[in-house]
Structures are given as C-alpha cells and as structure tokens.
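Example record

Each entry pairs one chain with its bound ligand, adenosine-2'-5'-diphosphate.
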Amino acid sequence: MTSGQTLTSPVLTFHDGHTIPQLGYGVWQVEDAVAEHVVGEAFRVGYRHIDTAAAYRNEKGVGRAIASSDLEREDLFITTKLWNADQGRETTADAFEASLENLGLDYVDLYLIHWLQPKRGLYLQTWEELAKLKESGRVRSIGVSNFTIEALGEVERETGVLPVINQVETHPYFQQDELRAYEESKGILHEAWSPLGQGKDLLADPVLGRIANAHGVSIPNVVLGWHLAIGNVVIPKSVNPERLAQNWTALALELDAEEIAAISALDKGGAGRIGPDPAVSDFA
Ligand code: A2P
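Structure tokens for the complex follow.
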C-alpha cells in the first residue's frame, strides 16, 4: 500500500495568480472541540488546505490546530466563508474580522460568500466588500460558494471582478457539467463540497465498486481520484483519522479514460442533488 506520508497534493492556479492545493480537508459538521485534534491529524497526514466557515462554528478549533502545528503559515492554505446573515455593505467587513480573530490569523488565503441568497439580493454589494478586503491584503483570493451561472455572470457584469472559485455540491451523482463548463470558459475553478455524496448511496455504487476492486482501493478513493482527474478542487470531510489518511492516498490513484468515462456516466443531473438548491434557497 502507498504511504500517505510521501504524497503531496497537486496545486492549481487561480486567475489572480495565487495557488490552491487541489485536495483539502473540509471541516463541515466537525465540532469545535474536535476540530483542533482532527485538523492536527490532517496536517500530520499531509493535508495543507483546510476549508472552514463562520457557520461551521469551528474556526477557533481550526485556529488552535494551526497555532500548535510547527508548519509555516505560508505552507498552509486556509479558506473561510461569510455567513448569510452577515451579507451586506455594513456587515461584511466586521464578519470577516471576527473570522480572522477566531482563526488567530492575520490573513486568509481564500474568503467565500457562503450562499447566494437570491431573494435577499445582497450578493452584489457583498461581493464589492470582498473585493475591498482583497485590496487590503487581508485576503489573498476571493470567491463564492453556491452560485449559479446566472449569478456568476451578473457578478462579472456588474462589478468587473471575477471570483477565483465557486464551491458547490458536486459528486458522481450530481456532476454539475453545465456549471463546470461555464466556469472553465471564464477561468473560474470548480470546488466540490460533499464530494463523497455525504457518505450515502454513492459509496455503495456497483460501478464504483468494480473500479475500486480493480485498483485494490476503496470507493471513496475512486470518487476522489475522479474529482482530481477532472480538475475539481475537492475537500472531503472525515472525523475518523483512518479515513482521513485513506482519503489522502487518493492522490496515488490513476484512473484510465475508460474508468473516468464510466464514472461520468453515473450523473443523475438535478435528481442527484442532496443539499439545498442555491438558486432558490434563502436561509439565515
Ligand atoms: P466520517 O466523518 O465518520 O468519516 P462528504 O465529504 O461528501 O460530505 O462526505 C462526508 C461523509 O463521508 C462523512 O459522513 C464521513 O464520515 C464519510 N467519509 C469520509 N471519508 C470516508 C471514507 N474514506 N470511507 C467512508 N466514509 C467516509
């Protein structure tokens, strides 16, 4: 078996010139008290890219893990996100400062608007505030999460500032082909949340099982290998140290064109969606 210790993540380049490790560790639903331990474990395995959010309520735990690690800040890539209730001209900067303080950092690598919130209609002014934060140097790169093609087009038209990345639900049952093609045409990277389909039916899929057996790896490895092969930034979540380490070994997997095509054929379109639809979801 390949040792996870010797693997390093590929790095992708944003249109603003900064880079992002393609395989990261997402801490959605990881309790703050647990986050310090598991993020520390992720660092030991080799992960350098951590994805949190104000709404996850674990920025402090992530910050404690960063503070107690002996890794250089420059070698880490930290993402956090602006929560829905904090969108707006007057509130965005304060919410960002609170996140920085929670993390114990003087900059983050990537700051995202967490959800579009179409009915509230604050995303354009919020985006302009993120652009100011980037100018201030406290954020290296700015992007969005759960944005539609229409909203990405509007942001570009109205503000002239293009997000570097869009983080949305993406997995083999919900592949987001149209959105991915649009982003690619604009030079926006695609980032997958719930890349393993939240550990549900997807991990019992017979096609994935067959490919996993052929390589002597797990189904999650095959799914992560597919994300990496098609160019997605991917942030699998696990609170289990063994699975955290197993997911990192997906970096050693090489799927051939036929296997990638077989996985691409699993797409169920909108029927494969697990989480909320960003085009219609407004929640605080
Ligand atoms: P756990 O945290 O107990 O490991 P997603 O990233 O798509 O949201 O999926 C996360 C879910 O998948 C979590 O429930 C997580 O459970 C589970 N999971 C993560 N990695 C693996 C793995 N290698 N094998 C099985 N389940 C996994």
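The chain has a mean pLDDT of 96.
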